[in-house]
Write a structure and sequence with these properties.
Chain lengths: 444, 320
């Protein structure tokens, strides 16, 4: 074990799906051309939606704020291409509903807004200023959770943070964007980690990477070998290693309390993409107008890792990369374990979009379900120690209190239970239903 | 717009495993003991298995009104397991009745695969004991190893659990290999262990139920068996290897449908099975208690599961 390595613990439960990463894991990130039309939803984060700050006919430039909110748990939205606002109104959203969005028609100039300029170096900026820059840049958790990043960087006084963890686990099959970022832009990730450590006044930084990415581990280790407070943690390859609670447990052996947050155990964690976004916000003054995602699956002709503008429509991506429309059975935004399947290709890439997967019949689960045979495999794989089959049965019978007693609300929706169910029961879906029933009851 | 796209909830991928593949794993694991029973008891064993399996599959297909004999494979498993609990060379109608009852009442009456409370094969066996106990008790034939065509029904023999004298009539080695009188699938501990390796390897069972079951039988046999078989230690081993403990612990108590799902519940279930088995053997009137022990514990499964729900991740300790 080298100095920069650290000992990790293995969380209980979890599954080993086929990685399906080989097609894109060694493919360098390429730039996807700015689209002719960008559709930018005014809500791409958890928290209060933004109010539009532009109207149809307005001229906008890249990086210009087009939406903002007064609320603390919210971040502004920026134009990702230059051109003219075509309309402001409801548009398809990956979450499956219509959301207010600003549609911009490109002027082809691809010119940046005048205010976009470097904001300084880390040494010169106070924690307060750092948080402000990060908020103004619209940075959210880019692993898919999309929680506003600045909020996580301002924990309550009584809960000091000692460790910042960079999540480079990328445990979802098929996805390789984070992997490529760690190989191609390791300095920016370390710099982003230092921004977080300064903002939180935290002493330690750890980069957690699954062992199925040896080149990323090596690159990062090389870079931190002279750092005294930053270490690399090679993690066992097991899904859902990248789930917040599992990641924190593996690295610190601390259990995030049920219903609590990482900060309750002195930890804040962020995705590698988020770290890079923070670095760019500081050094270039660049808000979150583009991200890296993986386009792959048997239905894609040219799988790739793309650096792509927010608001690019999925249909444009599919057109350029090519796809087998006839044989694609599921179009998924995100990874295959937790992503959202789409029925329309007319949906924009948003800040939380880590992948676009076109999966064929051979790859996806469309199986029918039969009655539970009580095998208990869902119990064995649940990383938060629930009994999924009991919660699912309670949900079927609308037994809300029973589902609550079985801790349905603690489910992290990782999908392990349904992945391993021989009876093909959509356990994760049923637990989501149980959660909805419980929340409904609490409201009334 | 793409007409081929379907939208369902995550996860979008799944293991290849199905209920059918699980049942096929059990059938594969039963193969060694089936072969050994034919080797020991000849064609009678084969005929018993065939009758039991076919009646089970036909009964299930008839109950479902669906002409799919193999179905999810669970009827074949029940039929084969029932055959394993029977003496070789029973009258065909006794076998058929047991198999019919196992599926029709033991399983389908509860709602089919996954919904039954009691192990169907054991329900079938219980019916046979209750209805034709005399016939069953009469049919413990002397083994004729590797004589496939020989009619074994000429000589009956005692089974080791019948009493002290009978127990002393077999060696531990015999008990382990299985060359003795007994139920078809119970005599060879070796074949059962070999078959169960497949189930452990495919993660269809874990150590908890069989381990705790066998351990309790051994401990109670050694401590309370009075050293009946040579000495205390060998008496413990005798109780593990004689009768239905190995078949029960590895293949019956581990039946997924009728055993607990929680890790702690599995241990409690195994301990209960072991305890009741030995209580019946040592203090009851029946020579053998494995199957009633498992059936009784089957009935307690919902209760056991209810009280053994695991601690959730990050459970906040109440330090009021």
């Amino acid at each position: 074990m080298s100095d920069s390595d650290m000992k990790v613990s293995i969380f209980k439960g979890g599954v080993h799906p086929a990685h399906s990463k080989r097609t894109t894991e060694s493919v360098a990130i390429t730039k996807f051309s700015p689209p002719q039309k960008a559709v930018i939803p005014l809500q791409q984060h958890i928290g209060a939606p933004c109010e539009a700050k532009v109207k149809a006919g307005d001229k906008v430039k890249i990086g210009q704020k087009i939406g903002d909110s007064e609320s603390f748990v919210s971040v502004p939205i920026h134009a990702s291409i230059s051109g003219e606002v075509e309309s402001v109104g409801p548009y398809n959203h990956p979450l499956g509903k219509q959301v207010e969005a600003v549609t911009i028609a490109s002027d082809g100039a691809d010119s940046w807004h005048d205010d976009i300029k470097p904001l300084g170096e880390l040494e010169d900026l106070s924690p307060e200023k750092l948080r402000e820059i990060i908020r103004e840049a619209g940075i959210v958790g880019m692993g898919g959770a999309t929680f506003p990043a600045h909020v996580k960087l301002k924990p309550p006084e009584e809960k000091p943070i000692d460790t910042v963890i960079i999540n480079g686990a990328e445990c979802e099959p098929y996805l390789t964007g984070d992997h490529r970022l760690m190989v191609e832009r390791p300095e920016d990730i370390i710099y982003g980690l230092k921004i977080m450590m300064k903002a939180l006044e935290a002493e330690n930084g750890v980069i957690g990477i699954e062992k199925n990415k040896p080149d990323a581990i090596k690159t990062m280790q090389e870079l931190v070998k002279d750092e005294t407070h930053i270490k690399v943690a090679p993690l066992p390859t097991k899904y859902p290693q990248g789930a917040e609670k599992m990641l924190i447990y593996s690295i610190t052996k601390r259990e995030v309390p049920s219903g609590g947050l990482p900060l309750d155990v002195g930890v804040v964690n962020h995705n590698v993409g988020t770290a890079i976004a923070m670095t760019e916000a500081l050094r270039e003054g660049k808000p979150l107008v583009e991200r890296v995602l993986t386009v792959t699956g048997s239905g894609i002709k040219q799988p790739a890792n793309l650096k792509i503008r927010i608001g690019t429509l999925v249909k444009d991506v599919l057109e350029v990369q090519g796809w087998h429309e006839e044989t694609t059975r599921k179009l998924i935004i995100g990874g295959p374990m937790m992503g959202l399947s789409q029925t329309s290709v007319d949906v924009p890439v948003i800040r939380g979009t880590s992948g676009i997967l076109a999966l064929t019949d051979e790859e996806v689960n469309l199986g029918e379900s039969v009655d539970c045979i009580n095998c208990g495999k869902c119990v064995d794989v649940c990383p938060v120690y629930l009994v999924p089959t009991f919660i699912a049965k309670a949900a079927d019978r609308q037994m809300v209190e029973r589902a609550e007693r079985f801790n349905a609300l603690d489910c992290i929706e990782c999908g392990c239970c349904a992945f391993g169910c021989p009876a093909g029961i959509p356990l994760t879906l049923k637990i989501r239903e149980a959660k909805a029933q419980i929340n409904e009851k609490r409201k009334s | 717009m793409s007409g081929n796209l379907v939208s369902t909830s995550s996860p979008h991928i799944k293991t290849e495993e199905t209920v059918r593949s699980v049942m096929v794993d059990v059938l594969i694991a039963l193969f060694p003991v089936a072969v050994v029973s034919v080797a020991i008891f000849g064609y009678h064993a084969l005929v018993t298995m065939i009758i039991s399996i076919i009646v089970a599959m036909v009964t299930e297909a008839a109950c479902k009104r669906k002409f799919d004999l193999f179905g999810d494979g669970s009827a074949a498993v029940t039929g084969l397991l029932l055959a394993m609990t029977l003496p070789p060379a029973l009258p065909w109608w006794v076998i058929a009745s047991g198999s019919f009852f196992a599926i029709a009442i033991g399983k389908m009456a509860f709602g089919g695969t996954g919904n039954n409370i009691f192990n169907p094969a054991l329900v079938g066996r219980a019916l046979l004991v209750a209805s034709w106990g005399g016939i069953l008790a009469d049919k413990w034939y002397f083994p004729q190893p590797f004589e496939f065509g020989v009619d074994i029904t000429g000589t009956t023999a005692a089974t080791p659990l019948m009493g002290e004298t009978e127990a002393m009539g077999v060696t531990l080695e015999q008990l382990f290999i299985g060359n003795m009188a007994g139920s078809m699938g119970e005599t060879s501990a070796l074949a059962l262990l070999v078959g169960s390796i497949w189930l452990f390897y495919k993660k269809q069972i874990d150590w908890r139920i069989p381990g705790s079951f066998i351990l309790i039988v051994f401990l109670m046999g050694a401590l309370l068996g009075g050293g009946m078989y040579h000495d205390h230690l060998t008496t413990g081993l005798f109780h593990v290897l004689a009768g239905g403990v190995m078949l029960g612990a590895l293949f019956m108590a581990t039946d997924m449908v009728t055993s607990p799902v929680t890790p702690l519940g599995k241990i409690i279930f195994g301990v209960g099975c072991g305890f009741l088995t030995m209580a019946i053997r040592l203090y009851g009137t029946l020579p053998e208690g494995v199957f009633f022990a498992i059936l009784i514990m089957n009935g307690l499964v919902p209760l056991i599961d209810h009280f053994t729900v695991p601690r959730k991740f990050g459970e906040v300790k109440s330090n009021a």
